[in-house]
């Protein structure tokens, strides 16, 4: 039986050659490939600066520190996200204030407004699954509260809101290059984008031991630098990003058509948003049964995420209140295979199995 993985990175000779050329260059840390990748990423998003880091978790921490967060500061953030979003806030010594999810699985602006206090300093919308959060409403709320917005774009390379790329709306945006992401570097990696010269300069310093120059350290940072072998790979894939995202959208549409009429909640594109289907997430009260059935057909599935971040033991001390929409959806969501490396035939195979499960 053929196995269909949740995600399959694209690997070919052009990518391998780029990595070999970087090895041969003998320049490995923040060298010419990294600098070019930063310039090209900034251009792709439409931001003035891009600062590479060794993960998005690190990038979020860099951006939060550069924004000047301090103990006691509260940050509004959706519970329904990958734990690193929350972890970076905690690691920057601020307090995450967990917000419920809207109908598109992203931060609910009304719940965020209800949870704002005089200690709120910022909002971190997460463009989850490749779908932009409700940026008009979040921006309006940030402006009304007089706080910054930091976009978590880890899952949304190339996604757009009203025609403008995500990452270019907040004071900063953060991307991940983890292997399953829409744009990868075949390993860990991340980037901060911003139009703000001071935030950019501070992120650059903090990722390199708080270094002002070779010998002088103006503050305590860390080693969160990036490397040229992975930058060379990222540059090849960035040139293909729009086409790879288009392929994901075509595969998603294939699923949509095959599932029409089934008792299955389908991912919907928010009006005004351009969804890049990092994940294709369906919804059914029979989630566990469906996952078990698909496993017997060689189809890998996932749940992103089964334990909401506000219910993680690591943040128990914050005693977060219940979030009804989030707690309901995590019991029903199921991620089906999708990536730039999947073929239409594979998607059709998954779709047939799902239809069979529902007796269609
Ligand atoms: C929404 C979100 N934020 C942050 C991260 C952290 O990214 P990284 O693994 O590059 O640190 C991830 C990774 O899964 C993510 O999905």
Explained architecture:
With 360 residues, the protein is of the alpha/beta class. It has two domains: 223 residues, Aspartate Aminotransferase, domain 2 (3-Layer(aba) Sandwich), CATH 3.40.640; 117 residues, Aspartate Aminotransferase, domain 1 (Alpha-Beta Complex). The chain has eleven helices and twelve strands. It has a seven-stranded mixed beta sheet, with helices on both faces. Strands 7-6-10 form a three-stranded antiparallel beta sheet, with no helix packed on it. A two-stranded antiparallel sheet has the order 11-12. α2 packs parallel to α8 and α8 crosses α11. 49% of the residues are buried. The model has no long low-confidence stretch (mean pLDDT 98). The site of pyridoxal-5'-phosphate has 15 residues, from α3 and α4.
